[in-house]
Fold this protein.
Amino acid sequence: MRRLAPLVGVVLLVLATGLNAQSGSSDVAGLPTARPEAVGISSARLARIGEALNREIAADRMPGAVVAIARRGQVVYYEAFGYLDKAAGTPMPKDAIFAIASMTKPIFSVAAMSLYEEGRLLMNEPVATYLPELGQRVVAIDEDGSQTEPANRQPTIQDLLRHTSGFVARGGGDTALHDRYAGDLVTYPLPAGDYLKTLAALPLRYQPGTTWEYGPGFDILGLAIERITGKPIHTVLTERLFAPIGMTDTAFTIPAGKASRQARPLPRNPLTGATQAMRNQTEPRAVDCGSGCLASTAADYLAFAQMLLNGGRLNGAHVLGQKTVEFMTSDHAEDGVDLTGLHNYPSLHYDDHGFGLGVAVRRSPGGGGTVGSPGTWSWAGSQGTYFWVDTREELVVVHMAQTPGDIRGYYRQLLPALVYQSLVD
């Protein structure tokens, strides 16, 4: 019997982690499930996802992952692989909770667009319309911001949503002004009043509307949403999005009762050997930021993305209007916007992409060196999460993993190759 114990443990791990591609439950996030062949996908080819991820797990390049795929409104793939916590030997459950980092941004975009539909937050309005503390912006003309010129126009809400506001993040560049900048609330957790005061004292790095650069735009957007509604941002998101479509595991702080489901990265970076750890999402932050503070599950994010693909509707809820979703996910980077920062952003593979309101938008079939359709919109998180929506193929894909560092760029190439090769109709 003692000799059988290790074998039993291995069998249980395989069953628990989906290494043999278990079938999903009767529904996922309120969406019906279907056999892949019913929606033009080959089951045999889809199985290559598990084969590839298992190789990565066996090679100690990733701890584990959860992948969810829906086509034509039906879930055809929902599997867990590897380990929730490799160091502890904990198998990965399908309902694992992941730090989604910048995949928080599209969620804040939806909150903003819901206020847009009520006429309370307009795209071409200056940010100062809603946050007067940030009025009368000037623009740096040297690298430390000691010399400035007037802004050609003031940054707008649209600029915040498409990263063209001129506000930049500490660490986003190598100039002295970047070093001075308050940066994202993720790393600079000031109370809202102090944060706005700090930003107000700094010049913009670029003329508004001219240059794409990651920055604290979504943190500023969150403060504007709170100012408009008179409610904390977590309440706004819960009332307008999470509760209506059933995103029951998405929050800024993982509650104690769900702490055992928090996914962890490998103890060491597989490319550099350096130790790596992630913030404990069960500990509340000083600020619930829009740049990257949420945690979520594959099922919750699948529901979110499917809602958008459905034109703002899911599970009987009407979150946004169809034309609003179309507006949000269209390319807002008109001619003259310098997209070098997007195209060269580490690990994103977003060559030949434009940018909408919180999402990158693919411009050509060959964009970024990955397979896909023009018009596909997507975004990713620095901790290894990734999603995309291909409206032409009626396809939603969510990849959840805690693989921080440069290796996450490898998986953003791998998943599209594995998913699209499975489509047969």
